[in-house]
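As described in the Methods, two query proteins were run sequentially through the folding procedure within a single session, without resetting any intermediate state between them. The first query and its resulting structure tokens are shown here.
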Amino acid sequence: MKPKDQNTEPAFCPTRAMVELRHSISIGSRGSSSPMKRDGDLSPLIPDSQPNDDDDHDRYSSKDRDRPFWYHFHSICPFFNDDARFSPHNSRICLVLLLLLLLLAGLISVLSIVNRLNAPYLCRKDGIVLHCPHVKESPSLWENPFSATTSWKPCAEHRDGGMSNLPSENETAGYIFIHAEGGLNQQRIAICNAVAVAKIMNATLILPVLKQDQIWKDQTKFEDIFDVDHFIDYLKDDVRIVRDIPKWFTDKSELFTSIRRTVKNIPKYAPAQFYIDNVLPRLKEKKIMALKPFVDRLGYDNVPPEINRLRCRVNYHALKFLPEIEQMADLLASRMRNRTGSSNPYMALHLRFEKGMVGLSFCDFVGTREEKAIMAEYRKKEWPRRYKNGSHLWQLALQKRKEGRCPLEPGEVAVLLLGMGYPKETQIYVASGQVYGGHNRMAPLRNMFPNLVTKEELATKEELVGFRKHVTSLAALDFLVCLKSDVFVMTHGGNFAKLIIGARRYMGHRQKSIKPDKGLMAKSFGDPYVGWATFVEDVVVTHQTRAGLPEETFPNYDLWENPLTPCMCKA
């Protein structure tokens, strides 16, 4: 059974007061119209001169132009008055005209109603505010309104039966090679972009290499995570993909080290035309080139729609995790749904509060003087240029928190979920690294929501031993369990969260994907005069439009978080 929606005041006493947001409406003063002035001072009883026939004609023509449409209809059809001179023939003409007018008005009304009923559900932005169409359904904790999720369907999938017009491997412009850097999700985005760039230049793509990251320190290969056969086969009608560098290119080390074989001047979010004008000529000359670096080196709204659709095809259809990863994720999700002895929904929480994230944010958090001193030294060591002498950091931290740019602490997440109405019994899967502050930092969240579990608590050591060989394999398990959850809650930005939200939108918008308004939270926690009831009302109203509903795209939008326009069609 699903936990009941609870919007009542919880039985705990918050130790910190929260903001009472005041919504004021400014009322403009109403202007009054001044009386009209006479055109002249002449008396209407004493004409200045006798009017001629042309003057009369102009005067009456002007009056006729100012008369309403129904006056002219009245003159055409005099049976509306007591004039008995009209003929039966004129009467029939007038009745036909009237009937036609009524039919036209009715048709316009029907078409207007049909258009409104058939208009797809779409939230639209007004500045930073998102306005969503009203629905009659009562709000649910676990699902988006059904009527809001039936207007769009995925349409980026591969079409069977189509004829491929791709040239053979030897007839393409050449071979391109990339290093997919960063963590698993940044690597995933790089792979999608590499396929798109290969299509733009009509090139053959060498299977990307997953480069070791300084933080992850993981030597994972493409085939250790993804199903290579499915990847190549699914995209066979879109792009030529080969598993390795061609045999005729004997000096493979040159591809990684030689400037002559590397394109390094690709700007971030480059348009498709940049590759055609600057990279393609070099590729045709050298026949094989490496693109480095390749993080976010392809834009979104400056490439053709079919290229963005191809990126979605790669992300949502071609890139599949290995069967053993998929099976283990299914097992973990099944255990989450049966933790109460019967079927229950579950929430997935992406908690980004690791030491590196806290340090990089340069935000201030609750802690002892000793903790703050240790964190200051850590920041000074890792980011000396940003740290400088540290004198400006307090003001910077206040500004970032006010703007909602700081990660949510575990205790803040707990208060937010309570404000939304989630009961204490909610089953929550936590995807995170090692939380900064350990058990003490997690205590408020665990006290309010005791049913918190991680993959290490759901599975035995024996079940996970095969996945510990690669850190990215464990990250893949978190990704899939979050993807399958009834409700997904992010606490800070990043590729993991936006890929999850985008995929859940692509699957139909039914599943809730909550993106907290951290600006509202900062404002609420920072004011000493808030009441719990006011806080709850603000949280519920604000987050009704932040749950992964269909949302229009905008210039420089993020394709991975909102695939609506290029990759989804009206249902």
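Immediately afterward, the second query was submitted; its sequence and tokens are:
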Amino acid sequence: MAALYSTTCRSHSYSLLPSSSSSSSFHGQNHQRLNFSSYIAKRVLPAKVSFHSRRNYHLNVVLMQDGAVATPATLVENETPFKKLKGGLLSSVPSTQEFKEAASFDVNKDQSTVSITVVGASGDLAKKKIFPALFALYYEGCLPKHFTIFGYARSKMTDAELRNMVSKTLTCRIDKRENCGEKMDQFLKRCFYHSGQYDSLENFAELDKKLKEHEGGRVSNRLFYLSIPPNIFIDAVKCTSSSASSSIGWTRVIVEKPFGRDSDSSAALTKALKQYLEEDQIFRIDHYLGKELVENLSVLRFSNLIFEPLWSRRYIRNVQLIFSEDFGTEGRGGYFDNYGIIRDIMQNHLLQILALFAMETPVSLDAEDIRNEKVKVLRSMRPLQLEDVVVGQYNSHTKGGVTYPAYIDDSTVPKGSLTPTFAAAALFIDNARWDGVPFLMKAGKALHKKRAEIRVQFRHVPGSLYNQDFGNDLDLATNELVIRVQPDEAIDLKINNKVPGLGMRLDRSNLNLLYAARYSKEIPDAYERLLLDAIEGERRLFIRSDELDAAWALFTPVLKELEEKNVIPEYYPYGSRGPVGAHYLAARYNVRWGDLSIEQ
């Protein structure tokens, strides 16, 4: 069956405003809407208006097909009130000639450019994820015509050495199409390097000078990706804002997790970031929100009539969010030991997925409408209690003649560490839709399988005519929806079915949508989607500060209690299914972990 539609990349354009411009219809004619707040701020607004206020003025100009300019009825400003005149005009509306000048200033996309700076370019994340994602976007034609990529780090390196380092991680993963080598060469020619300290205004000013050379007088839009440890975020942001931000286009900063260790440290980080940036310039990235099946959650629920009526306590018995890795810390124990599995996975990845899953229907697909509904879910959640949490830590285990090390055998982990490598928790949303439904989370390292999935177990059929065919274990007859995020992305719906034959024998069958079988196109990496969103100013999959506050408010009390009481984790063998305590936790709420069934 053919797909409903197919596109190589999203249609997009680049403007001076945070949101990209678009084409639409005006009185039956095609026109292009132009946004040029920075130009108007310099040419039109009164001198007494500060730059902080000016940058929030959004002036829209409509350019007709014949080149004429349609003057807008209003000049919209977000902060400082202006006196309105008759017809909705403001006293500061410029002349028609100034509109024409401004329109010609931004009408040509050749006059704008995007500069992407990877701060911490010599690190593993940059090499393994960020640069390959940028190349994939370039290969697919998703980057603008004029763009430049700069690596910035303390390591001494030339442009050629950066290109050599980056080239080792680039692949034409997309169908192995033609011109792969040629595309790589073209991409690498756009990559440059500047060495400097993360807290040096002078070094960032030198970077700014280099960026301007490559921008060639065009309207400069700048994206900074902070692929650095959180303890130097603020220094880098200060230098970026003071010495290397764009003077005429937009400036955005992507911040990697962890966003603090608890409510206090997260609030302090947010406060420090907002000394130098506005909230709409900060893109807090959680790469799990860029996973294909996570983004498909709202499509599955809100565009299919069969699911939305079932999406409540009336029909859903429990929801399970499961994350497991089949490897340990492997030399990253120093970082991991400072955070643990709850902070590393549950408080962000799994909780964000839960909020998307459980939210009410948003007013629109606008980023703020979606994030508003997510915040409502987080604020409705019952405070997490210690008795609803199980923690574990993997031990050494020998299997097939191979000995796998314990967590504390990692040379980077402090001896005697009690940091959990496994955690399970039962959470509840105290609202009308989800009251009483347990949301069970489970995350761990060194388990028997690598997986990330959402399992929705529906209630038993009341007065079922076929209970006798399932015996005493009615869970065998429970319908279950499984959304497998990774690996082997898929959506499974488990149903009861009659086995063909003369007798009445029932079987549990799967209605399966396996993405690899259904869609020939390879699924993009999450970083590709999120980088493109950041370039386009799409904030839907990034975390807002109040979301972050609500998430930390839920987990901080139990994290402090675990540390203050020195709770000893339950030990489990490397490569096992995790600690037994997780099963007792689930059983307390009459739940059986779906990933441990015989079928799995």
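Residues 98 and 437 are 60 Å apart (CA to CA). We note this only descriptively and draw no conclusion about the first query from it.
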